[in-house]
Amino acid sequence: MVGKICGFLCIWIMFCANDIYAVDRVGYVCNRQDQTVTPINLSTNTSETPISVDSRPFYIAITPDGHTAYVTCPLDDQVIPIDLITNTPEPPIVITSSSQSPSTLHINRVTQKLDTLESTGSSGPTGIAITPDGTTAYVANVFDNSVAAINLKTKTLAAVIPIDETPIAIAITPDGRIAYVANADTNDVIPIDIATNTLGLRIPVGKGPISLAITPDGRTLYVVNKDSNNITPIDVATNTPRMPISVGDKPLSIAITPDGQLAYVANGDSNDVTPIDLVKNIPKTRVPVRKGPTGVTINPDDQHVYVVNEFSNSISTIDIASNKAEAKAISVGTRPVSFVIVPDQAPVASFTAQTVLWGLVKFHASDSYSPTGNIISYKWDFGDSHTEETTNPEIYHNYSRHGPHKLTVTLTVTNSAGTSTNQVFTGQTMSLNGGSSAVTSHTVQVKF
């Protein structure tokens, strides 16, 4: 009798039950005057306890796994790692200057006071980007006319690549092959072959290139030209510049949505943000924000844009659907410059299977979970040429008596930010760090 019941009801296949719950998404803003980095809880849009870095932080990038932030401090010649598990600064990485005649930093209007400051023999690390595999950070040294490569495993300087004039921003292609460097004084962009750290040919752009972003498909690089009040698209395959796109006054930074459909440009002097339709490469209606927008970041959920307002010590939130800034801004430290959001991590797929009656199998995936957000999609491949996608973790599937009774069933899950198996990278920091944990396969024995 017991054997017969097992033959009909048969099996529970149990895999990785997890008592893990989603956590709030967090961003980090650099406050140069306070010498702090402030965590921002994006679920509540509130500031948390600032992290003191004992230096003037300007730009920040986060490793794909979300464990470590790297903060550049151009006036103190160092890059400071921050452990994001404990929000604790680690020993700084010193960027040694090789220049005999340090240049004057006279082009960077990310902050007004920085325009008048001169190097005293430091390298001036500013723009930073981390390779998609998380192994290397590339840093633009604006005083030293060079790009530094940092080994993130050892947290040591691995190489210094000479650049002609005032390298200020870095963006890396999603395939991790090319790093593009914006040179503010020579009005061009130079590609660097990451495998060999060798320079390619210059690509002319507008005046005062100061910020870069790359579409998630890796096809187009967008260059913010501060003194031309426009954006230059560059075809990555041919390194050919296209027709510039007009934006607001003194644009300073750009961010691209994870779906690659829109870009947002912070305009420092006109105190607004220009959305750009990247399908047509045309600007849309500008969104007013608070005084001195310097940095712009896209929430991985594709619903909100965060704008750092340096001269109002705040971050504005723009609702993408309505194209309007929300009334209440987030208060941060003094003279904030840049903001980055911890990359959304891959969800974890897990399921059980139970034959309930005559080839009818119940699948249950409630043990699947996501580190951020919630799982919203369960895509099943039942192993018999049938697939189905649901929003419910429970599903029944009826197998044919004439088919094989031992099959491989595969589940792929996607969370509310759109994170699943694929990565989304737009130049500096991973946005969606998808991976293999979002899919799982198991053999199911169907009983009749």
Rg from alpha-carbon coordinates? 24 Å
Structural class: mainly beta
Biggest sheet features: 5 strands, antiparallel
Helical percent range?
under 10%
Beta-strand residue fraction: over 45%
- What is the total tally of β strands? 44
Estimate the global geometry from the Cα principal axes: elongated
* Total of DSSP H or I helical runs spanning 4+ residues: 1
Overall average residue pLDDT: 89
Contiguous uncertain segments of 5+ residues? 1-21, 99-120
End-to-end separation in angstroms reads: 15 Å
Give descriptors for this structure.
448 residues; mainly beta; 5-stranded antiparallel β-sheet; 44 strands
Short description:
With 448 residues, this protein is an all-beta fold. The chain contains one helix and 44 strands. The longest helix has 8 residues, at 2-9.
How would you describe this protein?
The chain has 448 residues and is mainly β. The chain has one helix and 44 strands. The two termini are 15 Å apart. It is elongated. 50% of the residues are buried. Strands 1, 2, 3, 4 and 34 form a five-stranded antiparallel β-sheet that branches. Strands 5, 6, 7, 8 and 9 form a five-stranded antiparallel β-sheet that branches. Strands 14, 15, 16, 17 and 18 form a five-stranded antiparallel β-sheet that branches. Helix content is 2%, strand content 46%.
